[in-house]
Automatic annotation (TrEMBL):
Catalyzes the phosphorylation of the position 2 hydroxy group of 4-diphosphocytidyl-2C-methyl-D-erythritol. Residues 84-159 form the GHMP kinase N-terminal domain. Pfam families: GHMP_kinases_C, GHMP_kinases_N. Its EC number is 2.7.1.148. Pathway: Isoprenoid biosynthesis; isopentenyl diphosphate biosynthesis via DXP pathway; isopentenyl diphosphate from 1-deoxy-D-xylulose 5-phosphate: step 3/6. Belongs to the GHMP kinase family. IspE subfamily. The active site is at K15, D151. GO terms for biological process: isopentenyl diphosphate biosynthetic process, methylerythritol 4-phosphate pathway; terpenoid biosynthetic process. This is 4-diphosphocytidyl-2-C-methyl-D-erythritol kinase. Residues 218-277 form the GHMP kinase C-terminal domain. Keywords: ATP-binding, Isoprene biosynthesis, Kinase, Nucleotide-binding, Transferase.
Length: 299
């Protein structure tokens, strides 16, 4: 019998949507809209470390990172942190006590349309699946994740996936399938730049704006026009990126961050320069797509 693990950490990538077609809201989904989306995990990672604590001492949460957005305020309620919600949900589902120290090293911009909170929740589920020696299959973890938020089931596996329902029904798209080959041929793979902002957008507000103004003509992300109506600089950044060599540029999910796929280093530097000169983004993060979660056994 091997000794129980005492600490596991997971690097979990951010999420974007290569397409995001939005349908009607459903009351049975708490007002969430029906979606048909191609999810793509991108290589900007949060790292969640779960460390076993003495029985009966409860949970603790520590946040690291230089861009914590509204999480930095002392008023940010630890018990509402998505990683803590995931800890309690899996404790409940598996009959374990939540005597775990969670430490999150945040690199994914907050409230950005990159599913940073969902990534942290997924990382917590993956870490505890190991720490508590549950060894549950992905499908079983996805059931727990779907109770926490629409993006969380996808964040458990990353890569590319087709999402339906309110986004929680996931069909993984294997690297050698026709859809992924087509996405790759069209430039939705390899190097990309994330245009990030100090400003955040609240997802419910973007969906509410979508209900008012609908999708933009030809937009593959039906929330793009709504996000830009709330945060115009995202639209300016998309134009600047396309004019300076990006193969694709769009708002990431509910925004405000912008994703620009660039075919080579020359395009990457000219898009970066265009964003700096036009001051249409606050921060630029270079990353690769697709990306997957990485589990590390610490001790
Ligand atoms: C915009 C996307 O990131 C695209 O992947 C997701 O649809 C949002 O996923 P998420 O942030 O995990 O969303 P949740 O935390 O489940 O829901 C937050 C709020 O977003 C809105 N929401 C979310 C998902 C969905 N399919 N329809 C919605 O209208 C609802 O107002 C909901 O109360
Ligand atoms: N671990 C966490 N990381 C980031 N945000 C969190 C976390 N826990 C709770 N939150 C709250 O969730 C809100 C949304 O954060 P998040 O970064 O997930 O937004 P998002 O990237 O727009 O999500 P999505 O793309 O799924 O709509 C934040 O404003 C924050 O208050």
């Amino acid at each position: 019998m091997t000794a129980p693990l005492s600490a596991v950490s997971v690097d979990c990538p951010a999420k974007t949507n290569l397409t995001l077609h939005v349908g009607a809201p459903h009351t049975e989904w708490g007002g969430r809209h029906e979606l048909d989306t191609i999810y793509c995990a991108v290589g900007v990672y949060d790292t969640v470390t779960a460390t076993r604590k003495m029985p009966g001492t409860g949970f603790s949460l520590n946040l690291e990172g230089t861009h914590l957005g509204d999480l930095a305020s002392s008023g940010s309620d630890m018990r509402r942190n998505h990683a803590v919600l995931a800890l309690f949900a899996l404790a409940e589902a598996s009959g374990n006590e939540p005597d775990v120290a969670l430490s999150i090293d945040k690199r994914i911009p907050v409230g950005a349309g990159l599913a940073g909170g969902s990534a942290d929740a997924a990382a917590t589920l993956l870490a505890l699946n190991k720490l508590w020696n549950l060894d549950w299959p992905l499908a079983r973890l996805r059931k727990v994740a779907a109770t926490l938020g629409a993006d969380m089931p996808f964040c458990l596996s990353g890569g590319y996936a087709h999402g339906t329902g309110f986004g929680e029904r996931i069909e993984a798209l294997p690297p050698n399938c026709d859809t992924v080959r087509d996405l790759t041929d069209r430039g939705f793979a390899g190097c990309l730049l994330v245009g990030a902002y100090r400003a955040e957008l609240r997802t419910p507000e973007v969906y509410a704006a979508f209900d008012q103004i609908g999708a933009g003509e030809g937009d593959e992300n039906h929330l793009q026009q709504a996000a830009i109506s709330l945060h115009p600089r995202s639209g300016q950044a998309i134009e600047a990126a396309l004019e300076s060599g990006a193969s694709h540029a769009f708002v990431s999910g509910s925004g405000p961050s912008v994703i620009a796929f660039v075919p080579d280093d020359k395009a990457a530097s000219s898009v970066g320069l265009a964003w700096q000169e036009s001051r249409t983004v606050d921060r630029i993060i270079a990353a690769q797509a697709p990306a997957v979660p990485i589990v590390h056994i610490i001790a």
